[in-house]
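Review session, final week

We close the course with one last complete record, chosen because it touches almost every idea we covered. It is PhzF family phenazine biosynthesis protein, a protein from Streptomyces humicola with 217 residues. Go through it on your own first, then we will talk.
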Amino acid sequence: MTGYDVLCVFCGPDGTHGNELGVVRDGARIPGRAERQALAGTLGFSETVFVDDPERGAIDIYTPTSRLPFAGHPCVGTAWLLDVPELVTPAGVVGTRLDGEFTWIEARPEWAPPRTLRQYGTVEEVDALPVPPPGEWIYAWAWQDEAGGRVRARAFPGRDDGIDEDEATGAAALLLTARLARALNIAQGLGSQILTAPMPDGLIEVGGRVRLHRTMA
């Protein structure tokens, strides 16, 4: 099998949690979409990235069952790994920057796949939610501190591929930020953290911590 790195993206302040991401640095070794899709299904991460050109930052993103033109946590993780000023995705060029412990991307809300943003009245309601049946992609959220822009969220992809809940999802956070038109500090999953902020010209900035979990030869 082709070697790949496993990153944890949107880690908490103590460096734990975050959503796992598979990154195949030498994507040229697996050029076909069918082969990439098969490998993404075998690896089983919520997303797997194939790097087509590390110097340009050209990447290709897959879930276990489909190809995505853009996704948040794959872009943040790959930006950290490649340390390039931008990523080239099928959706468009994603600006990137590293700022201390955080890696940031700039993207447009319209690039994100459709999500149902479902608000709840309390954090406790969000925490108590069962995993819904496959179907609708749901981002469940509630204000933890509305004045301070702090949000509690959980993500249910609604896919029948073994991934019942995403630990951290940048695209959904991007959509929520666009809807609320304000910077957010999102606590998602078991302990992940996502930071966002509206930017000029309709862009949204999404940032988080990234760490290398393991490298598979």
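Two points worth writing down before the exam:
The chain has a mean pLDDT of 96.
The first helix runs from residue 33 to 43.
Good luck, everyone.
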